[in-house]
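Retro notes (design track)

What went well: tokenization of the new backbones is finally stable.
What didn't: we kept losing track of which sequence belonged to which structure.
Fix going forward: every design gets posted as structure first, then sequence, in one message. First example under the new rule, 303 residues:
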């Protein structure tokens, strides 16, 4: 299902919660969310973070209670989205009544039977949540200008919502090239439940598949990370680095290394913690939780 919502919907916890409660009554296992832009106000990076964090976090909270096993992906709005990919991903559309259905780019909906396009009311729901309440980048008031070469790194094991936000922001920022560092096996030995870690090949495949969904036409350059810096100390032309708040000190190390090499330091975009405390990182969304769940499932008779 493609779910089309407004920016207002995406910022309001009460609105997005209502929307997802309706969505969860549908017989679907994949949800693709498109935030319809407010053309009077260009999207900034910080606004994108607010949208992504609110959507993913709200959906996670609801499904963790209901125990529903649904996958959600938030798309980057693109009037030239690949219609062939759209036809492969969804066959129905649900949009909020604040969205002008005729303004949705045809690429997203032209393959969908009209009888499978429906609306849901949110216009009467009062929004009391302010922007930038929790999730923000280092400069939340900055306007967006594409950056030629952007890098992001991680294990990307059991690709979860935190990974998706990192990759989506990185894809949004880049104007030409996205470099994704994926941690190699040599650095994973101390990870908890490492025997349930996905292979490097599977993690790379999942990264490529996700980027293809959210921004068709962008093909990431994948590097295997075997040290702290990874591609940031191998590719001089990188302009910016996207990291989680937990990894910010690693970004400082990277820039010190680049200075030693005589290269320009990177602009660093820091994303808040999803589903956890930003000061202690307690209860943050983690691949470890997914590996632990698999371990407990396989050892249920011993627990």
């Amino acid at each position: 299902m493609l779910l089309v919502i407004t920016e207002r919907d995406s910022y309001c916890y009460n609105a997005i919660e209502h929307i997802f409660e309706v969505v969860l009554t549908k017989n679907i296992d994949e949800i693709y969310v498109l935030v319809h832009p407010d053309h009077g106000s260009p999207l900034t990076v910080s606004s994108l973070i607010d949208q992504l964090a609110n959507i993913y976090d709200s959906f996670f909270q609801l499904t963790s209670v209901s125990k529903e096993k649904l996958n959600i992906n938030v798309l980057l709005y693109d009037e030239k989205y690949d219609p062939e990919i759209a036809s492969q991903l969804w066959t129905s559309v649900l949009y909020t009544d604040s969205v002008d259905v005729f303004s949705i780019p045809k690429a997203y909906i032209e393959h969908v039977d009209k009888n499978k396009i429906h609306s849901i009311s949110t216009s009467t729901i009062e929004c009391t949540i302010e922007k930038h309440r929790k999730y923000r980048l280092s400069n939340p008031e900055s306007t967006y200008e594409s950056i030629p070469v952007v890098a992001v790194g991680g294990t990307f094991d059991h690709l979860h919502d935190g990974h998706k936000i990192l990759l989506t922001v990185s894809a949004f920022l880049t104007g030409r090239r996205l470099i994704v560092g994926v941690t190699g096996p040599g650095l994973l030995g101390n990870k908890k439940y490492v025997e349930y870690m996905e292979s490097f090949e599977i993690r790379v495949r999942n990264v490529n598949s996700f980027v293809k969904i959210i921004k068709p036409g962008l093909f990431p350059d994948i590097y295997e990370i075997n040290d702290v810096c990874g591609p940031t100390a191998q590719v001089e032309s990188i302009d910016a680095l996207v990291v989680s708040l937990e990894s910010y000190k690693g970004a400082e190390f990277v820039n010190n290394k680049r200075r030693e090499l005589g290269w320009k330091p990177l602009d660093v975009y820091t994303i808040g913690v999803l589903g956890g405390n930003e000061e202690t990182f307690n209860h943050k969304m983690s691949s470890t939780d997914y590996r632990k769940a698999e371990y407990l499932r396989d050892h249920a008779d011993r627990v």
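Added context from the reviewer: The chain has two domains: 2-120, 136-271.
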